Amino acid sequence: MGERSHIGWTDDTWNPWQGCHKVSEECRYCYMYREKMRYGQDPSTIIRSRPQTFNLPLTRFKGPLVFVCSWSDFFIPDADAWRPEAWQIIRHSPHLTFQILTKRPHLIGNRLPHDWGAGFPNVWLGVSVGMSKYAHRLAELLQIPARLHFLSAEPLLERLQVNLSGIDWVIAGGESGAGNNYRPADRDHFRHLRDMCKDIGIPFYLKQLGGNIKINGVYGGRRLDLALHDDIPTFGRGEALTGLPEKLNAQNY
Ligand code: SF4
Q1: Exposure letters 94-125 (e unless 16+ CB within 10 A, then b)
Q2: Residue nearest to atom 3 of ligand 1 (CA)
Q3: Of 133, 150, 182, 243, which residue is most buried, by most CB within 10 angstroms?
């Protein structure tokens, strides 16, 4: 739970704590719930990870991108006692860029560090929205200053009616799961998001189309109308980058 990531839009995943409470319909087939239950653990109990995992950014991570809390939610109140230490690790890891994705943006404001200012230069803040009725998370996110704001539309469950103004990057993905434990994604919904991003000139990353069959190692494959969508933004809004790998420098937004 803290290693080189198989997720294409990041490099490492960091889980300083694990466990979560389901908050919305998108959570129905939560990957973390499925995996924890497979190992006989209670996914609704939030536990702090052992020090070796908690401290991974200071020891093993190469980054530069680090997805935070793939097995929890960084802003979940149950982790209030541990978060200051996590912020401290982030503060001391300027060589890493932390991608913090939440379904609880209304909780961010009271959980930022005192020196957040206009946002730590090495933190991207994002919200997960898979259905239009949760689009309010975008507006809540944009109230928080951050170096970069992003949307993860995964699992994408319908044609999203969202206002992307102020959003710097969009990730999309279909739901996946064994047997019938997933809700199929409609390609037109991906096309709609792709075209919206193109219209306003922001990067779009299509992670997977979803389902229960892997194509080239990814559920449902990654090609939409024969094309791959691999956009990952550079830092912030078009600032020069140094020392980042080719896949980042290849994009120049
Ligand atoms: S917020 Fe994320 S981690 Fe938490 S239950 Fe929902 S899908 Fe799972």
Answers
A1: eebbbbbbbbbbebbeebbeeebeebbebbbb
A2: 72
A3: 150
For strands 97-102 and 65-68, give the pairing: parallel
Q: Which residues line ligand 1 (CB under 6 A)?
A: 20, 22-23, 27, 30, 32, 72-73, 103
Distance (angstroms) between ligand 1 centre and the Cα of 239 equals 33
| Of 178 and 136, more confident | 136
Q: Relative to the CA of 22, which ligand 1 atom is closest?
A: 5
Alpha-carbon distances, residue 97 vs 7, 75, 148 (angstroms): 15, 18, 11
pLDDT of residue 2: 52
Query: Which residue has a Cα nearest atom 8 of ligand 1?
Result: 30
- For ligand 1, atom 4: residue with the closest CA: 20
Mean pLDDT of 211-222: 94
Give one DSSP letter per residue of 199-226, joined into a string: HHT--EEEEE--BSSEETTEET-S-BTT
First-residue to last-residue Cα distance in the chain: 31
- Residue 3 pLDDT level (bands cut at 50, 70, 90): low
Kindly list the structural domains of the chain, giving each domain's residue range(s) and its CATH number in brackets, ordered by start.
12-249 (3.20.20)
Whether the pLDDT of residue 136 is over 80: the answer is: yes
| Other beta carbons within 10 Å of 253 | 14
